[in-house]
């Protein structure tokens, strides 16, 4: 598609880290090619449905709960920025390591914004943040085909007060571990 | 006389700051007084419409109230209470007792009659300029179904407003919006539709998936909006009458949002985020063929077309902060039009073509404002913790927008304000509501 080509050229020309690779999600992108229920021992069924037996506890370093709670599933951003801080990079290093070890998992990186902005701009800003995290994970070796992004703009706050402490928690990119093929 | 005077009255709505208040004062009974920026509304009388068939009394009274509330709701008219009336017309065809209306300083008199036959409803009305003692325009009759009785009242008020101001009205119109419920960190959203005054509210979608920023088609028959129904943001197209809907954009890996109809209603102009970069595209709703309109590494979103269809105003942070730009409809070099302090977003081109409304964020406050299409004569109309997403009334005189209250218990409500910054008021929506899109006058 022409626009992807243009986007790729722009990325190359500007060397902006936030630009994406031309990898696209789609049929046969290799997502979930390893199948389910391997490696993590998490009780996933062959059909791709998540079994009732659960995915292992937070104490199991191969579990998504461990990823979420011990490695840290989110990185925070400054006001109106999508630049990764050193702390954010450290968290993403851990995420990348986990994803490289647990190769049967995929991830969706969710970008979010605080409420101090207009709705549609914040969707675009969230997309920028999610992509910054995704690009960093790719740079650390995670295959692009296992990472997808989505932006919720300011529509999914985790902290609901209207002051800077809450805004800081809401300006985030959250890596959500998913089992199965991304569609 | 009536017409001329109110035309003057409306003039300051366009350029209130440019016209010294004394210029508005004039001799004679239709004097308009401006004190401290408040226009003295024009007093009118509207005796309860006559019931011309048995059992039409309640409908006649209700329709009269709708018309009266439309007019007073503009802030430009003041209703004289019925208790002040010296006489009331014996029938719709009775001669008008002008001295009785002059005595109570009614400047406009509206008379009407309502007839019901089965499901058929007929409403007729006449408008009089009391001080010249003459009818203003000819009597009009509207016919429709009983269920559409509120629209009859709006039609009467639109005709009165139009004859007195020389502008088209906006009362017989609908608004599509996002109805919100639930806690702030888990809010459910669904599309709602209602009359411009918040009546006849209905839902168009369920609340199973996130929806954002609906927009009416130019004829009001369809709605474009952003839906997360697929799990990712996509453009959806909904037919208002059947509530049938379909996805417009389907490219895997893309996020699509911020859709607007072109003037012919045949294409959608919207934003696509890919690889963290957001640009503006156009897709033909019939063929699906699409064109890229902007190519920059910055965020380009929130497009709005000029009423002649030739230009697009949009927001971009290519300068480092959100600002407004205008480009030809086919793409091309954009011209920046916002230069004041702060950030500018969600621009919308007035249906009259003369102004662009926008959201401005500055020094911790949000404002709804208007500027000329070249960016000059910027005026802020509102100020709050969070005002955003203005939408124009079909006559380009009033804006409806979202005002969000702060804190964990806070939420969005719809408000309207006229383009002079007067007559700010909440629109009843029965709960939290955001992102209004004001549709055209109904046929």
Automatic annotation (TrEMBL), chain A:
<dbReference type="InterPro" id="IPR050330">
    <property type="entry name" value="Bact_OuterMem_StrucFunc"/>
</dbReference>
<dbReference type="Pfam" id="PF00691">
    <property type="entry name" value="OmpA"/>
</dbReference>
<comment type="subunit">
    <text>The Tol-Pal system is composed of five core proteins: the inner membrane proteins TolA, TolQ and TolR, the periplasmic protein TolB and the outer membrane protein Pal. They form a network linking the inner and outer membranes and the peptidoglycan layer.</text>
</comment>
<dbReference type="InterPro" id="IPR006664">
    <property type="entry name" value="OMP_bac"/>
</dbReference>
<dbReference type="InterPro" id="IPR036737">
    <property type="entry name" value="OmpA-like_sf"/>
</dbReference>
<dbReference type="InterPro" id="IPR014169">
    <property type="entry name" value="Pal_lipo_C"/>
</dbReference>
<dbReference type="InterPro" id="IPR006690">
    <property type="entry name" value="OMPA-like_CS"/>
</dbReference>
<keyword id="KW-0564">Palmitate</keyword>
<feature type="signal peptide">
    <location>
        <begin position="1"/>
        <end position="18"/>
    </location>
</feature>
<keyword id="KW-0132">Cell division</keyword>
<keyword id="KW-0449">Lipoprotein</keyword>
<dbReference type="InterPro" id="IPR006665">
    <property type="entry name" value="OmpA-like"/>
</dbReference>
<dbReference type="GO" id="GO:0009279">
    <property type="term" value="C:cell outer membrane"/>
</dbReference>
<keyword id="KW-0472">Membrane</keyword>
<feature type="domain" description="OmpA-like">
    <location>
        <begin position="65"/>
        <end position="181"/>
    </location>
</feature>
<dbReference type="GO" id="GO:0051301">
    <property type="term" value="P:cell division"/>
</dbReference>
<keyword id="KW-0732">Signal</keyword>
<dbReference type="InterPro" id="IPR039001">
    <property type="entry name" value="Pal"/>
</dbReference>
<comment type="similarity">
    <text>Belongs to the Pal lipoprotein family.</text>
</comment>
<keyword id="KW-0131">Cell cycle</keyword>
<protein>
    <recommendedName>
        <fullName>Peptidoglycan-associated lipoprotein</fullName>
    </recommendedName>
</protein>
<comment type="function">
    <text>Part of the Tol-Pal system, which plays a role in outer membrane invagination during cell division and is important for maintaining outer membrane integrity.</text>
</comment>
From TrEMBL, chain B:
<dbReference type="GO" id="GO:0017038">
    <property type="term" value="P:protein import"/>
</dbReference>
<comment type="similarity">
    <text>Belongs to the TolB family.</text>
</comment>
<dbReference type="GO" id="GO:0042597">
    <property type="term" value="C:periplasmic space"/>
</dbReference>
<keyword id="KW-0131">Cell cycle</keyword>
<dbReference type="InterPro" id="IPR011659">
    <property type="entry name" value="WD40"/>
</dbReference>
<dbReference type="GO" id="GO:0051301">
    <property type="term" value="P:cell division"/>
</dbReference>
<dbReference type="Pfam" id="PF07676">
    <property type="entry name" value="PD40"/>
</dbReference>
<keyword id="KW-0732">Signal</keyword>
<keyword id="KW-0574">Periplasm</keyword>
<dbReference type="InterPro" id="IPR014167">
    <property type="entry name" value="Tol-Pal_TolB"/>
</dbReference>
<dbReference type="InterPro" id="IPR011042">
    <property type="entry name" value="6-blade_b-propeller_TolB-like"/>
</dbReference>
<feature type="signal peptide">
    <location>
        <begin position="1"/>
        <end position="25"/>
    </location>
</feature>
<comment type="function">
    <text>Part of the Tol-Pal system, which plays a role in outer membrane invagination during cell division and is important for maintaining outer membrane integrity.</text>
</comment>
<dbReference type="Pfam" id="PF04052">
    <property type="entry name" value="TolB_N"/>
</dbReference>
<dbReference type="InterPro" id="IPR007195">
    <property type="entry name" value="TolB_N"/>
</dbReference>
<feature type="domain" description="TolB N-terminal">
    <location>
        <begin position="30"/>
        <end position="136"/>
    </location>
</feature>
<protein>
    <recommendedName>
        <fullName>Tol-Pal system protein TolB</fullName>
    </recommendedName>
</protein>
<comment type="subunit">
    <text>The Tol-Pal system is composed of five core proteins: the inner membrane proteins TolA, TolQ and TolR, the periplasmic protein TolB and the outer membrane protein Pal. They form a network linking the inner and outer membranes and the peptidoglycan layer.</text>
</comment>
<keyword id="KW-0132">Cell division</keyword>
